[in-house]
Amino acid sequence: MAFNQIENIEQFIKGCKTFGLKDGDIFQTADLYECQNMSQVISTIYAVSSVASSAKGYGGPCIGTKIADKNEREFDEATLNAGKFVLGGQMGFTEGESQSGMNIGKTRKVVDM
After folding, report:
1. Rounded to an integer, what distance in angstroms lies between the CA atom of residue 47 and that of residue 65?
2. pLDDT tens digits, residue range 79-92?
3. Which of 31, 87, 101, 110 would bridge with 27, disulfide CB 3.0–4.6 Å?
4. Within 13 A of 89's CA, how many CA atoms are on the CB side?
């Protein structure tokens, strides 16, 4: 029985590679069979859904993110030169916003008795 389960998991992994998933997106057999890294298993399922809906043209329900389409842009020389003189939003700005007063979660109470 265990051999059949491992064989099925390996066939799924092989199918994922054929389908177009990257090696970093696919879990290993022990991750699922021994329940070692279930977050990677879930991540693989999301990746399968993303590839199916974006690259393979599946139009049904989807749980993954949409893979971005190529979006090349052509700018003329005047537009490129005008962009050289625009400063970023915070470039050179040293006053105003800071992290003072930020609280994340519960504060730590230290009491001397």
Report:
1. 8
2. 988 888 877 665 66
3. 31
4. 1
